[in-house]
DNA sequence: CAGTGGTCTAGACCACGAA
DNA sequence: TCGTGGTCTAGACCACTGT
């Protein structure tokens, strides 16, 4: 009875439903087929269908209403749990969109005094500065300014890397994994952050001013990421006793 | 076979495990009993135990490792950030300033349709709306708009309460404690949020759009708190694997 | 190999909302 | 009343990890 479980069946089903929502098969505000219908269509048990729907719910793509049905939400935004460390690309992919990275600058330069203080490194430390735009389905969702201490870079580093996700680059090229981030959150209203075709459109941002560490508490990067307000939805679970 | 399903069994089990982690029965870094053990102990099926564990995983309290076990996460030493639930008054006091509350409005009204959807309550639910400013040493740090379902209020409620911290009010007058918050974070640029003498000065805010729950997952309040950018420092520790 | 978590099934009962 | 989603069970096979 049980099927091979390499890739969760529920994820496949969720992906199909995501695609259908994006393509207008299930328009915003519309009702998804009932769970029983989906069981028959995909030939799986109800538990599996429910797992898929729960995934869409957690991602904020649908809303379930007891005794009524499951409905497509009107506001399909990219969402991320702020308290969870993870690559921006990942969270874009998780919401059913295709992430993109456009690099505008890769420069080696000494860090500025206030950067050195925030990073806790000597004032003349050299670092790689990255300036890039992050997109979801071609739409700009964030502008990011990153600093990576030169000492961490591969010895054969050349200025044409990285090209995509910086998180992926850390893992693939440098063999380190960012597992801890210490961030400050700000609201920013400025015409001097955005660049490119949308420069005039984007003025309001959520700034994540963040230090990244690996498991050994070694500083990997200092990043200032300006998320375009409205394009990226931040959620946050706060706990007490 | 099936049990009455008023309050999810999995939540109860998760609560027990949480309490045991807090009390040191399962110390940080330690291993939780296996799923099979927990099934026997609580007398439930494995699906239910797994649901409870998934809840702890989403909250970042445990980490599962295939073929090995489920482990209690080591909590970061810094716990003074956005991810921690607490009253605004408390954090103001913690920074050595004196918190103040100025109430501008207390009204009973039906919730609006989009509020009802966010809160997950019927469309015509009555709620107490609070509108207030929160100050630190007399300086305004936040404007807050809160909704409390009428059903939660004391039977002898009159419209001259609360007067200070809403968190304190919950505990003292209603005997409930907000221990879980689900928030969305936004940047807001608007001249229509602030009121009073500083209305013209404050345009840029960090909005915490937040649902508050007690330990039984009962909705206590829906609050939209606009923090004056620069007046309140938000930090945040983000963790991964 | 044994024990762990990861996934899936088939069927059941309950609670809710609308007709 | 009927169809919906919400919860739970008992059992199964798979994949991973350490011995």
From TrEMBL, chains A, B:
- One matching Pfam family is GntR
Gene source species: Pseudonocardia eucalypti
What are the entry keywords?
DNA-binding, Transcription, Transcription regulation
Family annotation (InterPro entries): Bact_HTH_transcr_reg, Chorismate_lyase_/UTRA_dom_sf, Tscrpt_reg_HTH_GntR, UTRA, WH-like_DNA-bd_sf, WH_DNA-bd_sf
Instruction: Give the highest taxon in the source lineage.
Output: Bacteria
What residues does the HTH gntR-type domain cover?
A: 7-75
Do you know which PROSITE patterns this protein is assigned to?
Answer: HTH_GNTR (PS50949)
Q: What is this protein called?
A: GntR family transcriptional regulator
Transcription regulation among the record's keywords?
yes
Does the entry feature the keyword Ubl conjugation, yes or no? no
Task: Name the SUPFAM superfamilies on file.
Answer: Chorismate lyase-like, Winged helix' DNA-binding domain
């Amino acid at each position: 009875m049980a099927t091979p479980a390499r890739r969760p069946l529920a994820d496949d089903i969720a992906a199909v439903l995501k695609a259908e929502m994006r393509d207008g098969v299930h328009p915003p505000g519309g009702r998804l087929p009932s769970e029983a219908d989906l069981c028959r269509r995909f030939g799986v048990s109800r538990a599996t269908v429910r797992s898929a729907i729960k995934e869409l719910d957690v991602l904020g793509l649908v809303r379930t209403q007891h005794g009524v049905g499951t409905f497509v939400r009107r506001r399909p935004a990219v969402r991320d749990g702020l308290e969870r460390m993870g690559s921006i690309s990942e969270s874009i992919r998780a919401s059913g969109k295709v992430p993109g990275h456009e690099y505008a600058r890769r420069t080696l330069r000494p860090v500025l005094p206030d950067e050195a203080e925030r990073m806790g490194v000597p004032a003349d430390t050299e670092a790689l500065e990255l300036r890039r735009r992050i997109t979801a389905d071609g739409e700009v969702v964030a502008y990011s300014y990153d600093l990576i201490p030169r000492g961490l870079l591969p010895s054969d580093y050349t200025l044409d890397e990285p090209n995509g996700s910086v998180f992926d680059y850390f893992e693939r090229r440098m063999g380190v994994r960012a597992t801890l981030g210490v961030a400050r959150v700000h609201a920013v209203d400025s015409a001097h952050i955005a660049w490119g075709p949308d420069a005039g459109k984007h003025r309001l941002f959520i700034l994540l001013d963040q230090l990244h560490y690996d498991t050994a508490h070694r500083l990997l990067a200092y990043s200032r990421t300006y998320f375009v307000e409205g394009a990226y939805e931040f959620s946050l679970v706060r706990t007490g006793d």
